[in-house]
Amino acid sequence: MRALVTGGGGSLGGAIVRKLRKRGWDVRSLARGAYPALDAIGVETFRGDLARRQDVERACDGCDIIFHVAAKADLWGPYQDFYQANVVGTENILGAARRSGIARIVFTSSPSVVFNGRDLEGVNESVPYPARFKSPYPETKAKAEKLVLEANSRSLATVALRPHLIWGPGDTHLVPGILARGRSFKRIGMGAKLVDFTFIEDAAEAHLLAADALQRGSAAAGNAYFISQGEPMDLWEFVNRVLVIGGLPRISSSVPTRVAYAVGAMLEFLHKLLRIEREPRITRFLVEELSTAHWFDIGAARRDLNYRPSVTMEQGFALLKASMLNPGCLSAPCPTTLKQPDSR
Fold it and tell me: Is the distance from CB of 93 to CB of 105 less than 8 angstroms?
């Protein structure tokens, strides 16, 4: 088998690539940059832009399956940048797959495509897309997910996975983002809000399970699936655990949700008015994400994909702590198993 993994140099894409190579598959990666770590494990790398049709077609030629992981996932930026990367890029993937006769596509989506600014507690995949979005990322990911699911046919089987808040050794987004804010972090709102998380190895394994299940006429074809550890926990307890592992103090102050939302709206306005390119310190979308519950029923993934989380949250914290002893573990592959899980 030969697989194309878009974004193979990223944390999730890299984890998928390594699992595929362990299976003995030939693997290609399409990404903007160069990744020597991929070269070292025999991955054929293509440098290119998802929004350029010729780059995508060149990478897809001769492949049997596509894992479309790459996306622009920032909280802020011009809508057109997100549209080109997430929507046009997905259109190019689908077009190239059809022209190359590729039979399967596993698409990495996000639970944010159904986030409506309110609590989502134990919901399943029947929850609809919201009427409006407050960030270009979930809006363009929702458009891309629709394209992928609507493309499912007798000749091209497609599936979308929605892993929530991927973390663990090798994570280059969530954990580093928490540690970067460090001492300036403030809790938004009061009361416990349960949130789902997905350990990076389980997120990657879900993609391989989806590929295995994605046969013509299968139950998985044409569907989206929530992916997580199935063990929601209070968001701010997670943040504090990460801060302590990183040698930083726990959060000691808070801001009322309404105040934070107003500040986010003001900063968004000023950034647009003054054409400030960098991301605002806080946005309305981020405030809603940080002040609401969002955890999901993963029963469909268990049933159709045979997905079973292999790492508990406590084990995940122990693995993260162990990885901190190895410089570079937040930006490169690290051990993801423990001889005896540390439950302290």
Answer: yes
Tell me if 30 sits within 8 A of 52, measured CB to CB.
Answer: no
- Judge whether 252 lies within some domain: no
Q: What is the pLDDT of residue 137?
A: 95
In the chain, how many domains are there?
1
Nearest to 301 by CA among 203, 154, 233: 203
Question: Over the range 217-256, which residues count as b (16 or more CB within 10 Å of their CB) and which as e?
Answer: ebebbbbbbbbbbbbbbebbebbbbbbebbebeebeeebe
Under 8 Å between Cβ of 213 and 221: no
- The CATH number of whichever domain residue 117 belongs to comes to 3.40.50.720
Neighbours of 335 (CB within 10 A): 11
151-177 pLDDT, tens per residue?
A: 999 999 999 999 999 999 888 889 998
Token look-up 């930006």 returns: 331
Give the model's confidence band at 281: pLDDT under 50 very low, under 70 low, under 90 confident, else very high.
Answer: confident
Q: What is the mean pLDDT of the chain?
A: 91
- Which residue in 83, 137, 225, 307 is the catalytic one? 137
* Residue 178: CB atoms within 10 Å: 21
**Is residue 143 situated within a structural domain?**
yes
95 in a structural domain: yes
Instruction: At 180, list the tokens.
Output: 């970067």
- Rounded CA-CA distance 148/142 in Å is 10
Residue 139 structural domain: 2-164+199-228+296-309
CA 133 to chain CA centroid, Å, is: 18
Separation of alpha carbons 63 and 3, rounded Å: 6
CA dist list (Å): 51 to 72, 232, 238: 12, 36, 36
Is 184 domain-assigned? no
How confident is the model at residue 191, as a pLDDT? 79
- 137 among known catalytic residues: yes
CB atoms within 10 A of CB 137: 24
What's the Cα-to-Cα distance from 223 to each of 20, 72, 74, 331, rounded to whole Å? 23, 22, 25, 32
